[in-house]
Design goal:
2 helices; single chain; 141 residues; mainly beta; four-stranded parallel sheet; five-stranded parallel sheet
């Protein structure tokens, strides 16, 4: 998916899967004084294999633009995620940044919550819901 940034946008994306998925997102600043704040959360369980290509491009014509690209990855079991936030900057009159955060939900965390009376699914949901709560109105991938 390619999206052109025409003003200021703040967008959240959420991908929850237990299967193989490949997702490509590309955000392009072409106009001056544009801004983007993109946040992507991936929750992968079981034996999921996810590949994410997320890129923000600031073209030379997009002077005084700002961009932020954030990826949050949560895995459990044997799930794997390949993800990297990419920035392509064509001018030096802009501000841009990116971040990647990962969290693996291990057996010990689930065991601890299960010892408090939760089922494995309830424990998993509790941990995931804490991180993904801010994505509940986001775009589902």
């Amino acid at each position: 998916m390619r999206q052109y940034i025409l003003g200021d946008i703040k967008q959240k994306y959420l991908l929850r899967t237990n299967r193989r998925r490949t997702v490509k997102l590309h955000f392009v600043h072409r106009e001056p004084h544009t801004g983007s704040n993109i946040s992507i959360c991936i929750v992968a369980g079981k034996q999921a294999k996810v590949k994410l290509q997320a890129t923000t491009t600031i073209r030379s014509s997009a002077i005084d633009s700002h961009a932020w690209l954030e990826i949050i990855v949560i895995t459990s079991d044997r799930a794997t995620v390949q993800a990297a936030p990419n920035l392509e900057i064509d001018n030096n009159q802009c501000q841009a940044g990116h971040a990647l955060t990962t969290k693996h939900i291990g057996k010990n965390e689930l065991f601890y919550l299960m010892s408090r009376g939760l089922t494995k699914d309830q424990a998993w949901q509790l941990i995931v819901s804490e991180v993904t709560a801010r994505y509940h109105n986001g775009v589902r991938l």
